[in-house]
Every structure is written in C-alpha cells, then in structure tokens.
Amino acid sequence: MRALAEGNERIRLDEIIKALFTTSNGVLLRLLNGIFDENFMEDEVEISMKNKEFPKENYEDKEIPSIDLIRADFLTKFTERANNKRHYYHIEFQIKNDNNMVIRTFEYGFNYAKEVARTEGNEKTVLYFPKQRVIYMEENKNIKDVLNMTIIFPNNQEIEYSVPVIKYWKYDINDLKLKGMYPFIPLQLFKLRKELQNIIDSNKENKEEILKEHLYEAIESAKLIAYTCDELFKDKLIEGSDFHIMLLTVQNLIEYLNSRYFKDVKIEEEVKRMTKTLYDPLVEQQGIEKEKIEIIKNAIKMGMDYDTICKLTGVSVKEIEKVKHSNE
What are the structural domain ranges in the chain? Predict the structure, then answer.
C-alpha cells in the first residue's frame, strides 16, 4: 500500500513539474538557457519539447521477461533558424539520491541518440547524445556536483561519461530570477517537504503542534512566491499564461503539502483566494482566452492528460479536443 502511495505521489509531482514546461516560448527558452548555461535568443531558435518513453526489457524475472518503460522527464530540441543546426537536451528530475541515476541517465541519452542517429562520411553511423542535466530537489550530502561513469569496451577503450548536477535546494528566489529560471520559482515550496517528512517520521509526541507552526511558514512562502510572480508579470518578464501556470503550481504544491502533512482545509482556501485576487483583474486585460489555447497546445505536445489540462486552464475536454484537432 505504501509503495502504491509513493507511486501516486511521484505521478502527482511529475504532473506539477511537467506543467512548468508548458510556459510561453520566450520564458521556456530563458529557463533552458539557465539550466544548460546557454545564451540563445528567441528569434534564433525553434524549440521542440516533449516527454519520451523508451521500451526496455527487464530481465529481473529470468523466466518471463516483461517490458518496462524508461521515461525521460524532458527531452528538448533547439533548431537554429539560420543554419538548421540542432541541439539536443535532456533534463531529469530526482527527489532523493539514487546511486543508479548515472546509469539511467546514460540509458535515456543512448535511446534518444539512437533516434537521431545519422550516417555521415564513409558510411559511419554517428550517435548524438543530448546535453544532459539531473536536477536534485532535496538536500543530501552524498549528491555530487557531477555524475560520473566509466565505460570500458572489450578492446580496453575507456570512455568517461559525466552529467552535471543542479542542486535545486541551493537556489533561492533571487538566484532563479537572476538565471531567468522563472518557472522554477514555485518549486521553492517543495523545499519544505523534507523537514515536514522528518517531523512525521520522528518520535516526537507534539508532532501536530510542530506541524501547525510550519503551516504559517508554508502560507508565507506561498504568498512570497505568488507576489514574486506578480512582479515578473507586471515587469513583462513573463506572459499572462505563464503567470497563470505558476500560480496554479503554487496552489497544487500547497494542496500536495496539505494533503500529506497539514490536513487543514483553510490553508488551501486562503492560497486560492490570494492567487485569484492577483490573477483575475490583471490577466483579463491580456486576452487570456488566446493564451489558454497556447497552454493547451503546449500541454498536448508534452503528452499531458486531459484532466491535468482541464485543471490548468479551466476549459472542458470538448474544448481541448477542438484545439487538438485544429492543430493537426
């Protein structure tokens, strides 16, 4: 039962993070520039972003092999408009430390490289690995700055494979603003999870009282994040659709934390009132209906399910279907 609960938790967090990559192209480009230390301009490249699943045989059961799915969190392609040159990127999110992460990341990269493989001079097949990053959400002293692995071939040829790590817990709101990683600002709320979980797992008799003290911290964090998003919108650094997605992420993360730790209906109501007060009067002036269509298009490209898109945009399944078919 606990394994099922943890699986559902992972799926829910996946959907929350996935939504942050449905932002407008300009905001998405700045985010990816910040993650990969690039400096592309919006008029220089076209962005193609999608979730990708690769089949993988699992031989843990020696008698009856089954098929699992390796799911890369985010695969992205930049195509330079001037020369059609392509750049490939892969982002993997990880909550906790995992010693097998470097192997999984290599597997994702290899499978994607096979898809974009090309035959070049002298009929040589060339595999183009994407540029990769693993983003760790929660602090752990065992997480290194780079994931390293040595691959040794039968002829003793050695290849050093490495993937840089982003330690999200080290970033504060100002750091994220400075790097243009605006969509990641709402994830600051997630930094509360580890401490809250430690309280739940402790033997303290006054757990409920301690959690109530942290409830105020969660509300204040949500307000700070929401007002930061408001400032970004007023300064025209994000669009109305981006503002909408980021505020919904704040709401969803509060709901997630509340369902696991606080169990206080009032916190969700308070945060919803606050975000609605910020969002409604400003965005109505920006033609939000048109922007919702862009959110739906991006969400469909990302493979997001209809229930999540409905929650993101407030539109019906029928309207989503119309947008989908009009875009085919």
Answer: 44-170, 184-326
